[in-house]
Amino acid sequence: MSRYQDTARRVITQEAQALGALADSLDDGFDAAVTKIIDTTGRVIVTGIGKSGHIARKIAATLASTGTPAQFVHPAEASHGDLGMITKHDAVLAISNSGEAPELANLIAYTRRFGIPLIGMTSRPNSALAKQSDIVLALPKFPEACGTGVVPTSSTTMTLALGDALGVALMEHRSFTAEHFREFHPGGKLGAQLSLVSDLMHTDDALPLVSPRTPMADTLLEITKKDFGVAGIVNEHGTLTGIITDGDLRRNMAGLLDLTAADVMTSDPTTIRADALAEEAVKIMDSHKITCLFVTDTDKPIGLIKIHDCLRVGLG
């Protein structure tokens, strides 16, 4: 083991122990904070300076993306006009490990003046922040993992974890699902993973559909025109009864133009629902070694999704 790895393991172990101490220290203040945020009709204003400010930004982002309207306000900028971003309908979550950050003074005073709920997150229960707060989220006293006791390490890890705990508790209260998260996070890899089949499928006149009695000459024209490499076979009731793929064409090459779509098709094709995740469509196409799927509703084709559509948004 190298000296650097030894240091890394020591830091990680110590921060893990700090998280254990945090879990053991939770009290009714956490319940009160969750309840206060649930009752808030406006936003949660998250604030902090220095390393606490960086953590505050992340907590605000986590809350906002999981169904709790939230915004980070820089305490120094708040003293120069940004206090106007905070309304009587909001709640403020102020973060300071020492609880004595002077940059928070004006913002704290503003909450007291206008009766805005103040939740203080700090490791010092007798600090100015704790004394002014309506609710205190107390971090346990635990040594920083830097070895000198001055670099925020264990304290910032606990602060971030406590913010995550708030976010998840609020998610569970609101029955917040992956589908809700997708609405707030349509971009990036995560957004792609939460895309629905209905977001990517081709519909209406783009669908290559023929009847069972359609001559193969006309079926080939439909396949070529729609450019999906397949054709769906629908009966007189509009039900998808089969599919013609490149493999079906090769297997029936002899006398192909003398046949109808019903003679060539593969019956009971694999399909998918429009409300399924696109990730599920990729899994199905991979397992069946196919490149597209018809999307059906009560066995009637309403769309078609290709593997290339999924790859385009980062799936696969």
Structure description:
The chain is of the alpha/beta class and 316 residues long. It folds into 2 domains: 3-176, Glucose-6-phosphate isomerase like protein, domain 1 (Rossmann fold, 3-Layer(aba) Sandwich), CATH 3.40.50.10490; 197-312, CBS-domain (Roll). It is 46% helix and 16% strand. The longest helix has 23 residues, at 3-25. The model has no long low-confidence stretch (mean pLDDT 92).
List the SSEs and their pairings.
Layout (H helix, E strand, L loop, with lengths): L2 H23 L2 H12 L4 E5 L2 H15 L4 E3 L2 H4 L12 E5 L9 H10 L3 E5 L5 H5 L2 E4 L15 H20 L4 H7 L3 H6 L3 H4 L8 E2 L5 H11 L4 E4 L5 E5 L1 H6 L9 H4 L1 E2 L3 E2 L5 H11 L3 E6 L2 E7 H6 L4
Parallel strand pairs: 1-2, 1-3, 3-4, 4-5, 6-7, 10-11
Antiparallel strand pairs: 7-8, 8-9, 11-12
Helix pairs in contact: 1-7, 3-7
How would you sum up this structure in a few lines?
The chain is α/β, with parallel strands linked by helices and 316 residues long. 46% of the residues lie in helices and 16% in strands.
